Amino acid sequence: MQRYLWQQAEGLRHAYDAHRTRLDLGVTFPTLCGAEVTTSREDVGKWLRPTCPTCDREIRTRLGPA
Ligand SMILES: [Zn+2]
Predict the structure, then answer these.
(1) How far is the CA of 56 from the centre of ligand 1 (A)?
(2) Residue (of 39, 37, 57) closest to 47 by Cα position
(3) Ligand 1 mean position to 34 CA, how many Å?
């Protein structure tokens, strides 16, 4: 089963493959939009960043219609 989660990093809220990535503070991880981003302390707690539009489109493609 596919499992994706959202994580704020480097100014946007990205989606990532939760099977392949275990996230911790300061960990660089691959996103569904193809970027490699790193979470920092300010990414934890409040979710103020906009959703990454490419991740949003990609996750809908992968998961298909609900
Ligand atoms: Zn993204």
Answers:
(1) 7
(2) 39
(3) 7
Using the mean position of ligand 1's atoms as its centre, give its distance from the Cα of residue 52 in Å: 5
Distance between Cα 42 and ligand 1 center (Å)? 18
* Domain chopping of the chain, boundaries: 4-63
pLDDT value for 66: 66
* Reported CATH class of domain 4-63: mainly beta
pLDDT tens per residue across span 23-53: 788 989 999 999 999 999 888 877 789 999 9
* Mean pLDDT across the chain: 90
